[in-house]
Design brief:
With 377 residues, the protein is mainly alpha-helical. The chain has one domain (2-375). It is 60% helix and 4% strand. The chain has 14 helices and 6 strands. The protein has helices spanning 2-9, 17-40, 42-68, 72-75, 78-82, 86-106, 120-142, 160-173, 198-215, 220-237, 243-260, 288-298, 324-351, 365-373; strands at residues 147-149, 155-157, 183-185, 191-192, 313-314, 374-375. It has a 3-stranded antiparallel beta sheet, sandwiched between helices. A 3-stranded antiparallel beta sheet has the order 4-3-6. A hairpin with a 5-residue loop joins strand 3 and strand 4.
Length: 377
Amino acid sequence: MLPLASGLFFQVYGEHALAQWGMMLAVLVGLILFNEFARRTKAGGIITFLVIPLALTIYFLAIAIGARSGAAWALKNPTHVYMAGWFHYAKLYAATAGCIGFMMIKYKWGIGAKHWFKPFPFIIVAINILIACVSDFESAVNGWNQWWLTAEGVWQYGGWHNVFNGVAGLINIFCMTAWWNVYSSKDGKDMIWADMTWVYILVYDIWNFAYTYNCLPTHSWYCGIALLLAPTVAALCWNRGGWIQNRANTLAIWCMFAQVFPLFQETFMNGKQWYSWATLPVLYPEGADTISKLYEVAGISSTTVTPEIIGTTVDPSLVAANPTMMLVISALALVTNCAALCWIIAISKKRHINPYKEDVFTFQKYYKDSMARAVVD
């Protein structure tokens, strides 16, 4: 994935290349380290997924109340200006709910010790995927083959890529197998889902990268590469069977950070970037200049995104777009997820099993390594 990012997918060359690559690697390492802090001890998990989210909820409510009452500090707060859309809050709290549920299972807290609670990981992951699918379809509807302005002030470009990837996400839900077969690890650090092997990790990563590339274009250098690599590196190298826990942990951590510090990766309506490591995809042919042109052509001079300008559209004949790579990666996501589901069905028929109640990939080394770490109830 990384070699392709140097030119085909992202504008990471020129005077800011060192800052862009360096910060992406720093984010990757930071997410891996924060995940280790959260997963290794109960105290780390409680601080990260209970204490900090509670404090942030109070902060977010204060901003919302302040903005509703017209308080200048709230109206100018970066969280309100750049992260006020439904998706970011839905993703943050859905991911955090997953982290808490996974801790309940691995530490056997309350209902987390009950057999009927074991499908919770499947349910919460499916909810997270559905949130992204809705966002993809929303972009297709609001900006079919044209630019459209989101509530966060991001110019997206809708089209078949959104449809392909939205369908890929729906299929991806049914690529999760053995919903009841989740366990605590022998060392008490992880929740193990052994049948979620490299097969699912691969097709999920392709689908989710396509989603971020389609619907979070100004953030996808970080949330589409670093954020996906962090749990994958951990799961493949030292935490086999714990990928979905790694994924939920790093996603929640990143969402909390990005919600509070959105300027870390933002490009403004005048084409300026707060930090030199802010990175744009090739969707914007002239980089930051494309963004300033979009606002100019749309006749938008406001420095904040107001309800009346949300959903503004601009025809690509007026401001050029380059959606080719969005279509390529979304088509790849659809093909690979279809292939994975067909493989699951073929194995299940051959073994005469229900793939959602029994383990499918028992012949894979990754599965065997994961089960060696698990405490089987």
